[in-house]
Write a structure and sequence with these properties.
The complex is a heterodimer of chains A (484) and B (139). Chain A contains 16 helices and 19 strands. Chain A is of the alpha+beta class and 484 residues long. Chain A has one domain: tRNA-splicing ligase RtcB, CATH 3.90.1860. In chain A, strands 7, 8, 9, 11, 15, 16, 18 and 19 form an eight-stranded mixed beta sheet that branches. A seven-stranded mixed beta sheet of chain A has the order 1-2-3-4-5-13-12, with helices on both faces. In chain A, a hairpin with a 7-residue loop joins strand 15 and strand 16. The radius of gyration of chain A is 21 Å and the shape is globular. With 139 residues, chain B is of the alpha+beta class. In chain B, strands 1, 2, 6, 7 and 8 form a five-stranded antiparallel beta sheet that branches. In chain B, a hairpin with a 3-residue loop joins strand 7 and strand 8. Chain B is globular, with a radius of gyration of 14 Å. Chain B starts with 5 loop residues before the first strand and ends with a strand. The chains are: A alpha+beta (484), B alpha+beta (139). Chains A and B meet through helix 8, helix 10 and helix 13 of A and helix 2 and strand 6 of B.
Amino acid sequence: MARPEALIKVDDYRWELPLSYKEGMRVPGLIYIEEVMMSRLLEDQALEQVANVAFLPGIVGRSLAMPDIHWGYGFPIGGVAATRVGDGVVSPGGVGFDINCGTRLLRTDLREEEVRPKIEELTTKLFYNIPSGVGVGGKLRLKTGEIEQVLEKGAQWAIEKGYGVVEDLEVTEEKGRMAGADPFQVSQRAKERGVPQLGTLGSGNHFLEVQVVDNVYDPATAQVMGVDGVGQVMVFIHTGSRGLGHQTCQDFLKVMERAADKYDIHLPDRQLACAPVKSSEGQSYMAAMAASANFAWTNRQCITHWVRQTFEEVFAQKWEIMGLNLVYDVAHNIAKKETYLVEGKKQSLCVHRKGATRAFPPNHPEIPEKYKAIGQPVLIPGDMGRYSYLLVGTQRALEETFGSTCHGAGRVQSRTAAKKSFRGVDLIRELGARGITVKVVNKALLAEEASEAYKDVAEVVHVVDGAGISRKVARMRPLGVVKG
Amino acid sequence: MNIQDFEVMEHTADVGIVAHGHDLKDVFANAAYGMFSLMTNLDEVKEERVQEITLTADDREALLVEWLNELLYLFEVHNVVFKRCEVYELGEHGLQARVFGERFDTSRHEQKLAIKGITYHLLKIEKENGYKAQVVFDI
């Protein structure tokens, strides 16, 4: 267990992990958390991991952790670290296995009272139309050479194939196509794993939910995003780059381990393996990671298309009439080259967001024109029994967290423990009684994803809102849940 | 040899296993059994297909990661699930094995956890009443 006295309280939402915590830290740590959440933080090795990340060559500012922090591999989940592109490193562990795991929110003109009577049919059809679960392939059949197109063009490929409209790209981070992607840096094995899984949800904490807006904190900002008020039906998608990204991470962990030796980089944890951003290994990783990110954006775009088709089928109306437009799509496992003011100088940094979401402020050049006045939408998935949130980025995030905020609830209970505590409980019926329809591949696994296994996302969002690194706009609760 | 000698390990966000065996070959075989047990119910899996696997790695720990990732790859790409492994050659840097299983069929086989990757987190191979290996999966 970590030492609580090691942390210095900055204010109600910020705790500093000083350089003196561990010899070798290049920068202090900064953890966004409330005092009441502290005991949980100290239960495992997450704090130690914040300290270990501070060892990375070229790290600037602070080794940051969001309130949904928990023990990860090398990096904590909820960790943010920015390294100098010039003489710093990039670490695949700072991105994770699920490259560009991320979220996507669609709005509709439908009201809860219109959808509620059809929720069983809608959820069932979504479950069948969007493949999920272990060992299940997608409906797409890629031709030879097509996977390279996907990796290069990202969601743009999907639009060219008719899986969506150009407007979708406008409200997708990087317009769904990250620059610098090189399909040839992605291994054959990763492509083989990815091809059958394009257009699938996966399993674990990934989901597709039909939700209803149940609280609006800032109506004017919400309006800009097409969120009109309480009772409006939304669709939330949470998935990533599937086997393609997983294999890419696995491939590069090996490469980076050798690179760390080669460049004489000493780190306290094998899982932090890294290489200089500018080295051939670093460049290869960045190109392969960008290609994997493009795969994930394509995946979420294809799923969006089938969501729209399913709504058309169930409500016998064109999706355009139902206003099923994309609000935003954003990654929460990614490393990106971004420019920041560091010690009064503009510097190019490699920002690792491992279970953290980009949260750019109003007028930032990287955000869509239509959101220039309000800031970048930030989508925070909760667990299936509680809420998800819609936030916006702030200037304070840009100044303090390299434009980053939290990414979700964060687990507090292991899968085994969750399963034990729900033995004999019919969760589907229990959620049903609360008005939540659930379709899941394996009912026994559902307990592992129960609300009680997660931190209350409301607490997490309260901290980032209170700290000013993003701002609450609206809250949604689930009506229908699809899980692998 | 008890082919099912492994236990599931508690970890907040993900799942790990500890595999036991009287030698390292057993440990590797049981780790594979443990991994597939998380993904499906192996009692329902038949031994209809046999496959030979040859692998190399930088060290013994990396070899364990490679081994499990190879099996995960075969599962995802060739859609086969393995219930029994015979590791007949195992050194510091390489292994040879024969694995037995069948095509994964969701109409007959239970779909349990999907494993994203094999991590180096808390990875260890130790001599203790024979040998044991601990490995955490990214879920």
